Structures are given as structure tokens and as C-alpha cells.
Amino acid sequence: MTAVLLDGRAIAATVEAEVAAQAAEVTARAGLSPGLAAILVGEDPGSALYVRRKAEAAGRTGIRSETYHLSADVTEEAVLTLIDELNARPDVHGILPQQPMPPQISPARVFARLDPRKDVDGLGPDNLAALFAGRPNLLPCTPAGIMLLLRHAEIDPAGQEAVVIGRSLIVGKPTAVLLLQAHATVTWCHTRTRDLAAHTRRADILVAAAGRPGLVTGDMVKPGAAVIDVGISRVGGKLRGDVDFASVSEVAGWITPVPGGVGPMTIAMLLKNTVQAAAGLMRVPLTR
Fold first, then answer.
1. Among 54, 118, 173, 272, which one carries the catalytic annotation?
2. Is 121 known to be catalytic?
3. How far apart are CA 127 and CA 37, in angstroms?
4. How many domains does the chain contain in total?
5. C or N: which end of the chain has fewer Cβ atoms within 10 Å?
6. In what order do the strands lie in the sheet with 205-208?
7. Helix %, strand %, coil % of the chain (to 5)
């Protein structure tokens, strides 16, 4: 392998240490530790694993965490009522509705119901509008994690060609905006893009977030490029990303593994957002 491995676990550990210090500061000054409430609907194993890992990470950093596990047939109104209750609780500073949700529940309506000050996934309309307007508050966690990975690798997007594969509101769209705001020249692709490889071969920074395992192969990558693999799928009992790691790692300059790349960064940025939200709600200016 010629590519440098971007170790999300190691970088996330440094973020957790910073969050722990900030959480202790908030707790000492406000008399209440930051609180995170996750809402898990149904029995999706991937979602359950992520929520469990988020709760474990919260515990390591001094953030109180509680999970509301609702049945797959719960009504949308019941979920919205729960959000109203959590919005009103002064001891809850972050609310995380875990996606995906069953078809009877609209994620758009769920996130629109959140108090934007407690929208620690950064996916509600107020926080997304602030991001697109260039005045971000709580950033979407995975895109924020991607940008931090690049900073730790000392990769400056300014003036570089960046290609984002994927147009989801969770990853693709906000990542493209953050790269653009960092002065990259951004090409936005997706699974219906004609001749995808013609675009990806120009990329100095390539973010694959299409949810298609093995979509990006070594012959589609510019030598020396930074390749960020956001995809995660289970194939033959193993986790695979959108990037064919074996072939791409022989060409790229930097690459993230799956697992252990973007996933830990997403959780770390969620914790960072939770402490930021708690400090804002309790009016505790952070000094760290």
C-alpha cells in the first residue's frame, strides 16, 4: 500500500479528549453535565450499533446519555410528541433522531420539530440553512468529521479539485458545501452521473458517499489524491466501503479505512456538537 492511512479512530480519540475537558468545564460552571438523548425506532442492527457506540463514547467524555428505543410500528405523532418533551427538558441539550426510520415517519418532519439549539446532528432546516448561508452553527457530524480528517492530514482544500459522490442531505450535500467554503473547486456527482470516472480522475480530494460497495476502483483515482470513504455496506458478512481499498490504496496519497475511518469521526463530532449545544443553552462560554 502506498497511501497514507487516515486513522479516524486515533483522530477521534483526540477530539474525545477535548470534548471531555469541555464537558467538565460546563459541568463545573453550570452544575449540570451536558445531556444527549437518542431516539432509535425499530430494530435496524446498524442503527442500534451506532447508537450504542455513541452512548459509550458519551460516557467516556462525561456526557449524560439516554436512549429512547421505540417499536418499528410507532406513529409519527408519537415520535413528534417525544421530541416536544425532550425540547422542553432543561437537562437535555442534544437530541439525536437516528436514521433510517420506518416509512410511516418523515425524517424531514422529525428534524423540523427539533429545537435547532438541540439539533446535534445538524440536519434540521435552521442549521442546514445556516450552513448553506455560510454562517454555520451545529454542523452535520459526518461532513464535519471529514473536514477534520483533512485538517489533521494537513490537506488544504483551497484551490484543489474536489469531487463528492453522493447527494444525500446527511453527507453529500453538506460536504460539498463545506469543501466549497474551504475554497475547493467542487464537482458534485452521484450514481446517475455519466462517465463517473472522468470526474473522479480529476479529483485531488475524492469523497465517496453513494452507498454502493466497491464503486470507486484504483483506475478511477488520480495518483496522490486524498480518498475519503463514507460508504458502509455489509457484503458477505463483512463491512465494505464505497471504495475498493486494495486497488485504490496503491494509487491514492491518503485513504480512510472501512471500518475505522469516517465512522469514529462522526461520533466524535456528535459529542463535540452536544457540548457546544449545552454550553450555549446554559450560557457557559467555553474557554478551551
1. 54
2. yes
3. 18
4. 2
5. C
6. 4-5, 254-255, 226-229, 205-208, 161-165, 185-189
7. 45, 15, 40
Q: Measured in Å, how far apart are the chain's first and last C-alpha atoms?
A: 38
Same domain, 110 and 149: no
Q: For residues 136 and 175, is the Cβ–Cβ distance under 8 A?
A: no
272 is catalytic: no
Please state, in angstroms and rounded to a whole number, the distance separating the CA atoms of residues 153 and 252.
14
Distance between CA 214 and CA 126 in Å, rounded? 35
Question: Among 115, 119, 121, 242, which one carries the catalytic annotation?
Answer: 121
Closest CA to 96 of 249, 107, 208, 106: 107
Q: Is residue 203 part of a domain?
A: yes
- Is position 147 within any domain? yes
Tell me if 287 is assigned to some domain. no
Whether residue 145 is found in the same domain as residue 218: yes
Name beta bridge partners: 37.
66, 95
* Catalytic residue status for 98: yes
Give the CATH number, domain containing residue 36: 3.40.50.10860
pLDDT per residue as tens digits for the range 133-166: 999 999 999 999 999 999 999 999 999 999 999 9
- Please state whether 139 falls in left (phi above 0), alpha (psi between -120 and 50) or beta: beta
- Structural domain including 199 reads 141-263
3-state secondary structure of 44: coil
Count how many Cα atoms sit within 13 Å of the Cα of residue 132 in the half-sphere of its side chain: 11
Considering the domain boundaries, does residue 4 fall inside one?
no
User: What single DSSP character describes residue 282?
Assistant: T
C-alpha–C-alpha distance, residues 176 and 149, integer Å = 15
Same domain? For 95 and 158 the reply is: no
Whole-structure pTM value: 0.95
113 lies in the same domain as 201: no
